[in-house]
Amino acid sequence: MTRHLILGMGVAGIAAAESIRATESGAEIVLVGDDPFGYYSRPGLAYYLTGEMVEKQLFPFTTADFQRLNVRYVKGRTTKIFREEHQIEVDGKNRVSYDRLLIAVGAQAVRLTIPGTDLEGVVKLDHMADARHIQQLARRTRRAVVVGGGITALELVEGLVAQRVKVTYLLRGDRYWNNVLDEHESRIVEKRLEEEGVELIHHAELTEVLGKRGRVDSIRLLDGRTIKCNLLAYAIGIQPRVELAKDAGLAVDKGILVDEHLQTNDPDVFAAGDVAQAYDPLTGRSIIDSLWGPAREQGRVAGLNMAGRKTAYLKSPPFNVTRLAGLTTTIIGAVGRGGRDDDLVGIARGDSETFRSLPDAISAQSGFDVNHLRLLVGEKTLLGALVMGDQTLSIPLQKMIAGKADISPIREKLMAHDVKIADVVVEFWKEWSRNFVVT
Ligand SMILES: Cc1cc2nc3c(=O)[nH]c(=O)nc-3n(C[C@H](O)[C@H](O)[C@H](O)COP(=O)(O)OP(=O)(O)OC[C@H]3O[C@@H](n4cnc5c(N)ncnc54)[C@H](O)[C@@H]3O)c2cc1C
Description:
The radius of gyration is 23 Å and the shape is globular. It has helices at 11-23, 45-49, 63-69, 128-139, 150-162, 183-195, 243-247, 292-306, 353-356, 394-402, 408-415, 421-435; strands at residues 3-7, 28-33, 72-75, 78-82, 87-90, 94-97, 100-103, 107-109, 122-123, 143-148, 166-170, 199-201, 206-212, 215-221, 226-228, 231-235, 238-240, 256-258, 269-271, 276-280, 285-287, 289-290, 319-324, 327-333, 351-352, 362-366, 372-377, 382-388. It has three domains: 3-108 and 240-306, FAD/NAD(P)-binding domain, CATH 3.50.50.60; 111-236, FAD/NAD(P)-binding domain; 319-435, FAD/NAD-linked reductase, C-terminal dimerisation domain (Enolase-like, domain 1, 2-Layer Sandwich). By secondary structure, it is an alpha/beta fold. It has twelve helices and 28 strands. The structure holds flavin-adenine dinucleotide. The site of flavin-adenine dinucleotide has 36 residues, from helix 1, strand 2, helix 2, helix 5 and helix 8.
C-alpha cells in the first residue's frame, strides 16, 4: 500500500488528500500539521477581525468530513526531510516514512526588522492565533498604526476600525497598492479610508517602535516624527516557507520549483500552494501566487499525480474577489504596471505575480466613482480586468479572459472616448457566451 505523506494542513494539503483518496481508495494518507486550529479559511480571518464572521464559520470541514477522508493526522512541525531514507522528522524527534511526499506548508509574513519589534503590541496576520491575539489587544487599544501594502494591510486597518480603534495607515510610496491598482483606483480606496476616519501618511518610513513597560507606546518615522499608539500591525509581504526543501537539496527559487505535474526535482516529492513556484506550460513561466483558488487547484492536481494519474496543472488567469475599503473588487489576470511596490517585499497575500505584470495592452476604463471598470485590452484578447463596486461583469470577464475570447469585433469601440465599456462588454458577452461552451 502506498503511503502518501502531506506536510501542511491548509487548503492545498487538504485538496491533495481529497484527490488521492478519490483516486486510490486504499492508499494510506498521513497529514502532518503544526497549526493547533487545523484547517480553516485564511481569507476568512479578515471577516473574523471585523466581526462579520464568528470563529466557527471559518472551518469548512466537520469531524465527519475528516472521517470520510480517512487520513491519519500527526500534530507537529516537520523539522527535516531525509530524501534518501524517504522519511521526515517531526518536532526534531519522531520520524515518519513515505512513498510520496507533498510539501504544502504555505508562506509566512515577512518580519519587520527595526528596533522594538519584540514589544507587546507589534502584530502581524498569518494565522488564527494572530487573529485572536489582535482581537484581544484591540479591546484595550485606542490608537493603532498599520504599515504595509496589499490586501492584508488593508484588512488590518479595517479590522481595527471595526473595533473602534483610531488608525493611522503608513505607506512608503505615494499611493496604495501602486503596482496593481492604477492611480484612480488607489485614490478611490484612500478616500474611502479617510471617510472612515483613517489617517493616511504617504512617504512614511518607519524606523523604530518605542515602548513603555514592554508595550508599544509610539513609533518613530525617518523624518523624526513620532506617533503615539498602543498597537503596530504590519503586513509588508510574505515569504514561501522554503527552508525544509532547501535543506533537503530540492530546487528552490522564490518558492519550491515544480514542473507542470507539481513535481520537484525529486520524482517522489511534490509541492503545492503558496510554497510552490509552479511552471505554467501555457506561458512557459514559473509563477508565485498567494491565492486560495490556485492553492486548492494545485493541491488537487498534485494529489492526482501522487496517486499515479498523470495530470498537468494548467494555470488559469489568477482571480481574486476581495474587499478594498468596503468596496468589493475583483482582479483578473494582468492588470499591473510592473516594477516594485514600495510597501511590499515581494508578494502579498491574496496577490499574484501575474496581477503585477505589465501586460502588452492598452487600458480602457469607465466609471469614476464606486462602480469602476478597467480592462487591459490586448491585440485580440483581454489580458486582465479590474472590477470595483458593481460585480455584474466579474464572472463574464473571468470567462472571457480565461477563454481567450477574440474581441476584435469590439476592440475599437472599447478604445473609443466617452464609451461606456461595461455596455460594450455586456453586448459582446451575450453573443460570445451563446457560441462557446462556458464552464
Ligand atoms: C489574512 C489573509 C488574507 C488572505 N486573503 C486572501 C484573498 O483575499 N484571496 C485569496 O485568494 N487568498 C487570500 N489569502 C491567501 C490564501 O489564504 C492562501 O493562498 C492559501 O491559504 C494557501 O494555502 P496553502 O495550503 O498553500 O497554505 P496555508 O493555508 O498557509 O497552509 C499551510 C499549512 O502548513 C502548516 N505548516 C507550516 N509549516 C509547517 C511545518 N514545518 N510542519 C507542519 N505544518 C506546517 C501551516 O501551519 C498551515 O496550516 C489570504 C491569507 C491570509 C492569511
